[in-house]
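Re: the pair you flagged

First of the two:
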Amino acid sequence: MNYVPKVNDYVKWTTALGMVHEGWVYYKGTPDDNEKRIKNSWVPVSNYITIEIATKPRPQCDLSKFMHKRIHVCICCYEDCWHELEFIRRRVSKQDDTNPDELSSQIFGSTMMLNTK
């Protein structure tokens, strides 16, 4: 079974050319009804995700006019390439800076302490 990415998953994408990209799934498109598009002689479209591979601070500007405080660098990964993705971990939300690995070890450690008493 192939991995189906979700927003807030951290993935590693090794392309057919051997290039490796890592980052958070920032956006996932919704599948379109391509049968209807083809029937109406429209161009079929592919479902895709964007992977955030970097961020940088926005230059001095009026932040009330911008939705994001940082500039996000994203790449597109189309559904045809999702089999090349490797799931690494998941975060709670885009605002969550907690390392999921540390969080799970803290929970596991506290559970072990409860069981030993």
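Second of the two:
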Amino acid sequence: MPNIDELIRDRLSKDGQVLNLKAQFLREVGAIVDLSQNGIGDEGVKALAQSTVLVNLRNLNLASNSITDVGAKYLATSKHLSKLRSLQLVVNDISEQGEKMLRNSTDLLSLTSLKFRV
């Protein structure tokens, strides 16, 4: 599975310039990223959680992505999402244990909104 930096470099344009500009924007100002209903699963969450591109991210919507407790752990222990304020995880496969990991995360220090149910 490629990491987010590889996706940004390789996917949007043949020379990678458009994605690189978007990545630069995310690094500098943060943003709202809506990846709902994309089927990214736990491996996609891992790529997001490990990405330095998203260090200024404020709002992340991961609704309906087949994310389990494994993905919840990646998010809860991410060193790169410390500025995240809002996280949407509705319609995923996260148990009460996964919810607890996220609520008790010592890395998601700015998180003020965490939604698991509609």
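The chain has one domain: 4-115.

-B.
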